[in-house]
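Meet today's protein:

…
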Amino acid sequence: MSARPLVLVVDPGDQTYRGYCLEQTAASYDVVLLTGTEPSWETPYIVDHAVADLDDTTDLLAAGRALAARHELAGVVTWSEWHLVATARLARALGLPAASVEVMRACRNKATARTLFARHGVPSAASMTARSLLEAGLATMTIGYPAVIKPTAFAGSIGVIRVDRPEELPDAFAFASAGASQSREDTAVLVEEYLDGPEISVECVTHRGVTTAVAVTRKSLGPAPYFVETGHTVDAGDPLLALVAPVASAAIRALGITDGVQHVEMRLVDGRPRLIEVNARVGGDMIGHLVRTATGIDLPKTAADLACGNSPDLTPTRRGAAGIRMLYPAASGTLTERQINKLFAAYTPWLQQVQWTRQVGDPLLLPPDGDLFTARAGFYIVTGRDTAEVNQRLDTAADEITVTTQAAR
């Protein structure tokens, strides 16, 4: 029998983007898995598992209780945006350290979060809920243009669009409503003030009500009017951290979060941080991996530590930078070519990873017809001493990578 504590992981996600989370957690904990399908790539990292319909609360709770009956669990954790509420409910049911279900619901619902930010004086965006085109039009009369139309409770920038003029509103509302209709929590749409400035996220760890901002992620976005994320960079020495950390901490406190890892999104408007949202989990798009590469801080392990009621070690052990760039086609169509210069890949030590997620022959659909899940062909990761060097290397690598599509005739 292992002497290591045992943690229950709810929904490990896909190997490409979340495999590192399970691997890093399993390096310090024995892991039992609650998953929607039989394990495959997860098998080397787990000691037991149960399969359940993760979107059915009753089924998820029953499977979690079955695992708890077989094992002495120390905690329950997820890095899945979609299962934050259910995971909190399961942990409470098992008598384990847990976030409040209501707090997790507030994190999932952007309208609730905006209300709490306003109540606690956290700089955010003006926002109004709209359940019809008429209500959206009335909201823009208050908020003005440009405005952002987005689902109240979804993720991944799906259904998020900027509107610059009244005549664009009907199509934009339909686009946002289509994204919102996929939510199992709230199908309403928000009309929000457009925050004009660079987008960043702050990767935070909260323990017993005290938040530590461990890194800033600088983001790149695709062309307007959509908000598709095309890349991220993390620099251990980023001077922005001191400026944005207090606002990130205030937002987390406003939501009532006392323990956990948070991915706090904001924009810098005239150099001042304004909140977009707080995600109560490790950031997606390999951001946790970038943080570890740049700083040495292990966010998946930290999330498990906090889920088990343990104090995390947030001591930086590295001082560098890392970046990721997503591989998108120039236009929607069938993927006809995907390649990287083999000599460049073989003899470039700072090119840490190239990962393809689509095969030749697969369709790639950009917004408005698709989203990040249908548009990306893959990604690559580079390292460097600082943000400037990482950005230069990302551009250098881009010249050695080809992604070609052919439009349907």
